[in-house]
Amino acid sequence: MKVFILCFLVVVFGCIMQANASVRSLRFEVVNSDHTRLCTKKPLLTVNGRFPGPTVYARRGDLVTVDIVNRSDQNITIHWHGVKMPRYPWSDGTDYVTQCPIQPGKNFTQRMILSDEEGTLWWHAHSDWSRNSVHGAIVVLPRARGTYPFPKPHAHVPIIIGEWWNSKVETVYKEFLAGGTDPETSNAFLINGQPGEFYPCSKQGTYKLPVEYGKRYLIKLINAVMDNIMFFKIGNHNFTVVGTDGAYTKPLHTDYVAISPGQTLDLLLEANQPPSHYYMAARIYASGGEFVTIPATGVIEYVGSYMPPPSPLLPSFPEYNDSAASVGFTDQLKSLSDNVDVPKEVDETFFYTLTVNQSPCNKPSCLASTRLLASVNNVTFLLPTNVDILTAYYRKMSGVYTTDFPDFPPTSFNYAQGTPEKNERASGFGTAVRMLEYNTAVEVVFQATNFGGGVEHPMHLHGYSFYVVGSGLGNYNRFRDPATYNLVDPPLMENIAVARNGWTAIRFKANNPGVWYMHCHFERHVSWGMEMVFIVKDGMLPHEKMLPPPPDMPRCGGEASSPPLVFGDPHTSLRKRDEAQ
């Protein structure tokens, strides 16, 4: 089998790898390993026993093969977040969308195909809530003789903002689904796996970064938190944002950032302050709900001979609900170039409402008379149960999905301020996809609604980066707002936070054939069904067609799926609640 797979690599990927690119090989063993935080020891699902997992280093255009061996007691998939996987969705790693999960005792060789990405990406599990502990950084360096569009850094420093529950995350997940309400609040936030000195039993393990005065460090910041946008600051230091989501940006000088779940930022830090110890810290931004307000901290320690202070300097943060600080930071991001290839005209325009819905819940486990769901255009997405959508599309299997995902919501109302009647808060259910012709110029306008009091939605599209051409608060106006679009230097991203009760417009060219998932990166929202799928058809030319599957694709083997919601027949599109039940 190994010889056969090697031949497959040479034949299939030889046609898409860039000149002077390398093939790098890694081995990920998914295991249960014990870890202790906040005086609480528990087993975690991890890769190679590490939390966070190993950092993947590669260069632009490389092919990275990863042998994933599942030695745990749970199903698993691994998603390479921000890697476009040109023409090869088979390794995108989304359970029941592009593959069946890797079952315990099984293995799968994934191929991470880098193309034009450069900067910071990350990898994480994409099954149930396993990504809480199964994640790590991807550092994509320039080509061997390439240069940076900023002063060359002395070192690359991955910083992952994470989260810790004293309870087992598998238990939190199951109780959250059974109860029908919001999940249990986590007990701590983390920086590189450690809570920091403001949490109990945590001072000794605090992450520390030694720096030398006068040198520059490129911080590769990743938000791996499950459900919250985070502020990040460094005591007494400013830094320069030079990239986001694997693409360079115009330099943005600032003393803080706001980063949404799934997003990455490249921060160029100059060690130019008096030698001492300084906190780096991450604290929550939240427009409502229950949450931990204690910041996670690490310590920047200047190298040299000096008397460190009794306690490092803690930076001051915006208020936890300062939406202007969160939105204001994101609005300042711009592409490095003033002549980007954003579509100036579009072939298809979609208007997608993002909603937290309510549905009657009469099960004994329900904590209230209604349960929370979520939807895009009032469709709560249901994953298939016995086959993934990509395989069904490739093999032309019927009855797995429908192709009638709506381009617009079923009704029009005051999205940003309206308070719907109780009987209007339910959604329909479906496994509906939107088909796209190859090379279609697409615009998607995301509209956050006020259902459930309104909340942010960090939207992520697999297989593509997109240009964020516009955003605003309130209801989108299709006559007025397009005139405000930035079509000169909009940021190139693959994860964008739609503001609470606001809108965001993105554009992209559908030139990557395959099956591609789009979803909110708040884990509770995707568990409730805020997701959909694009299927991009093949083009006419050989290099415009999807590549064949590898010989070792995982089989579903009759396993029940791990979709968060199973109501009625998942093959029936847009059924109302009473029909589905």
TrEMBL record:
Catalytic reaction annotation: 4 hydroquinone + O2 = 4 benzosemiquinone + 2 H2O
Cofactor: Cu cation
Predominant localisation class: secreted
Region annotation (Disordered) ranges: 547-581
Keyword Secreted: yes
Residue span(s) of domain Plastocyanin-like: 32-144, 157-304, 405-538
Localisation per UniProt entry: Secreted, Extracellular space, Apoplast
GO molecular function, one term: hydroquinone:oxygen oxidoreductase activity
Source domain of life: Eukaryota
Key word Glycoprotein present: yes
Purpose of the protein: Lignin degradation and detoxification of lignin-derived products.
Family: Belongs to the multicopper oxidase family.
Protein name as it appears in the record: Laccase
